[in-house]
Amino acid sequence: MSNDAISATWRVPGLKQAPKLVLAILADAASDHEGEDWTCFPSVVRIAEFGSMNVKTVERALEVLTAQKLVRAVRVRKANGYLAGYRFRLNRKLMTEYLLAWFERNRARMDEEPFDWDEGLDEPLQPADNLSGGLDDPSDISSPIHPTICPEPSDKLSDQEPKTNPQSNPHSASARRTNGSAVISRSESRKLFDQAAFAYPAKGRKVTRWPVARKAWERAAKVHGADRLAVAAERYAADPDVAGLNFVPGLHTWLDDEVFLAFLPGAETQARQVSAPEAAGWRGPAEIRSAVVAARGEDFAAAYLDQGQWDGEARRVTCASGIAAERLWAAMGDEFTRTMVAVAGPQGRSAAA
């Protein structure tokens, strides 16, 4: 970092906000060591991150700085001949002239209006007329911090009336959250999306359409909460049955088809609270459902078997989705093979293929 370069940057006249900010970032990264002479080599992406700007904005700002001969950009070539990033060199001579001109203008102004820095230093300090912070009655103050200015914290937050009712707006995020999850900021939701994407199975990441997945994440997070979706993605990736699947859907499909519902925190408890007539949606042979319940549990049968249809002539279970068919076959393939039961997806594709 060069303090001289940073000081000269703020004195360069005629620059708009974006070029001035980019020049300041370059000055902050510029080296003042012998022989380097205000040179630096940050990437355009890094400059955009530091300045909270778009890459295109940074490129346009660099064009302005180059046109005004404040910055010189030289493309670096690697040893193998391929082009690398840019090496930037600030025009030290020109920027120093701007800095000296600014000091000359301010020095002339200070000479016209001299200021005595020692004025008043020999006089004793006088107490303030009113230390009550503008209150009419200073006797009301019982502590250094007046309760009306800075109230003491209370442990009983439930006794304090909120300023606004979160349910007053039916379209607000708080009003849509009926599952008890906390309202999370948009930046935090994006961090949780990255966390969920990193935890998602690699097979699914390869076929994920990321722009679509981000929009699907925002829609699902408004209803179910981004924190709960991140937990559901980690549970889905850690499920041993998912590891044995031949095909894992992309994250966008996983969100749009609401496959995550079975992996949300509390989904197991909600499944157990379903009444017997609702849970027993299976219309096929009772021994098939009994075998699934004995092997994988009631929740698994309710999620993947009860939603399907039974074809008695073909002895085939047609599941509601392809992922349900693969999960059901991965868990019960040996048993279904022994009892001559086939499993297929909604398009008729066999899960055993």
Fold and architecture overview:
There is one protein chain. With 353 residues, this protein is mainly alpha-helical. Among the domains are: 3-98, Arc Repressor Mutant, subunit A (Orthogonal Bundle), CATH 1.10.10; 186-265, no CATH class; 275-344, no CATH class. The protein contains 17 helices and 6 strands. The strands form 2 sheets. It has a 3-stranded antiparallel β-sheet, covered by helices on one side. Strand 5, helix 17 (322-338) and strand 6 form a beta-alpha-beta unit. The longest helix has 21 residues, at 92-112. Mean pLDDT is 75; it is low at 130-180 and 269-280.
Low-confidence stretches: 130-180, 269-280
Which structural category fits the helices and strands?
mainly alpha
Mean pLDDT: 75
Distance between termini? 62 Å
Per CATH, the architecture of one domain is Orthogonal Bundle
CATH topology of one domain, by name, is Arc Repressor Mutant, subunit A
Assign the CATH class of one domain: Mainly Alpha
Helical fraction equals 40-55%
Q: Give a quick account of the main beta sheet: strands, pairing sense, barrel closure.
A: 3 strands, antiparallel
Q: Rough shape?
A: elongated
Order of helices and strands: HHEHHEEHHHHHHHHHHHHEEHE
Strand tally is 6
Strand order of the largest sheet: 1-3-2
Fraction in beta strands: 5-15%
How many helices? The count is 17
CATH superfamily of one domain: Winged helix-like DNA-binding domain superfamily/Winged helix DNA-binding domain
